[in-house]
Amino acid sequence: MNRTLLIFLIPTIVIAQEFSELKLDSAFLNAKRGVYWCLSNIPNKKNEIENQLIANDILVSSVRLQKEIYGVRIESTGYYNSTEVKITFFKSMDNLLKEGFIKPDSLVSENKSEIDKTTKKKKKK
Questions:
Q1: CA separation, residue 26 to residues 22, 57, 85, 87, 98 (Å)
Q2: In this structure, what are the phi and psi dihedrals at residue 109, rounded to the nearest 5 degrees?
Q3: Using CA atoms, how far apart are residues 78 and 62, in angstroms rounded to an integer?
Q4: How many CB atoms lie within 10 A of CB 124?
Q5: Distances from the Cα of 79 to the Cαs of 34, 38, 71, 92, 110, in angstroms?
Q6: Which of 5, 35, 38, 103 is the most exposed place for a label (fewest CB within 10 A)?
Q7: pLDDT in tens, 37-46
Q8: Bigger pLDDT: 63 or 100?
Q9: Beta bridge partners of 80
Q10: Hey, which residues does 53 pair with through a beta bridge?
C-alpha cells in the first residue's frame, strides 16, 4: 500500500517543482527586463529614478536606479502571478562607458556642473 502511494506521489511532486521553476524563471526574466530598461534610461541630471513596467495591464517589474559615486545601483523586482524575484545590480561608470550605456560628454557636463556649484558657493562667501 505504501509503495503504491509513493509511486503516485512522485509524478505529482515532479510536476509541481517544474511548475514552480517556470514561475521563478518568468519572474526572473521580468526582473532582468527591468534592469535592461534602467540601463537604457540612465538620466543625465537626476540621481535617482523609479518606475513600474506594465504590459497588457499586468505589472511586470518595479525598478529603482540610484547613481552612486563610482557607478549606478539598480534594484529590479520582477513579477509573475504571485511569484516575485528581486535583483540588485551594480555597474561601474567605466563599464557603463565601455558598453555604451552612457556617453563621455555626459560625465563631463555632470562634473562641470558640480564644479560650477562649488565655485558659486565660494564666491558668495
A1: 6, 17, 9, 13, 30
A2: -65, -35
A3: 7
A4: 6
A5: 10, 16, 26, 27, 34
A6: 5
A7: 999 998 888 8
A8: 63
A9: 83
A10: 61
Single-letter residue type at 26: S
- Alpha helix segments (H runs only) across 48-125: 93-98, 104-124
The position carrying cell 552612457 is 102
Task: Identify whether the C-beta of residue 49 lies closer than 8 Å to the C-beta of residue 41.
Answer: yes
Q: At 46, list the grid cell.
A: 537626476
Residue 38: predicted pLDDT:
93
Neighbours of 57 (CB within 10 A): 5
Q: Which of 67, 62, 61 has the alpha carbon at shortest distance from 42?
A: 67
| Best CA proximity match to 96, nearest among 88, 87, 86, 106 | 106
Task: Report CA torsion sign: 30, 31, 34, 39.
Answer: negative
